């Protein structure tokens, strides 16, 4: 007999779509209204419907906290070093509003990297937020 958490997960799996695009060979998971691409999955990472559903649920439940973490880590960098001439400092609210999760990378140990489009906050550079294997956010950085 299945326990309550297995039943709850089973119900949630039906609510959260997992898409595999055969042409691009990418998986996508649902996060709110968006489909988030799963990038660079290590061949050693055991990707399955349960894992992708758990990640999708975790993202939906934590996306605002994730964005807030990224903003807290990077807002001083933006406002001290990345302002254009005569540009006003960005507020946390504006910064969060401009973050759009594009893709995630799942690593063998279970840690993930979340790549956000940051609009033009860092002149077209993306923002990556890194977690450990327990999905605790550890670092945020700007990238290409």
Task: Give me the secondary-structure topology.
Blueprint: H1 4-15, E1 18-21, E2 26-31, E3 34-39, H2 49-81, H3 92-97, E4 100-106, E5 112-117, E6 127-131, E7 137-142
Parallel strand pairs: 3-4
Antiparallel strand pairs: 1-2, 2-3, 4-5, 5-6, 6-7
How would you characterize the overall build of this protein?
By secondary structure, the chain is an alpha+beta fold. The chain has one domain (4-142). It has three helices and seven strands, in the order H-E-E-E-H-H-E-E-E-E. The protein has helices at residues 4-15, 49-81, 92-97, and strands spanning 18-21, 26-31, 34-39, 100-106, 112-117, 127-131, 137-142. Strands 1-2-3-4-5-6-7 form a seven-stranded mixed β-sheet, with helices on one face. Strand 6 (127-131) and strand 7 form a beta hairpin. The chain is elongated and about 50 Å long. The protein starts with a helix and ends with a strand.
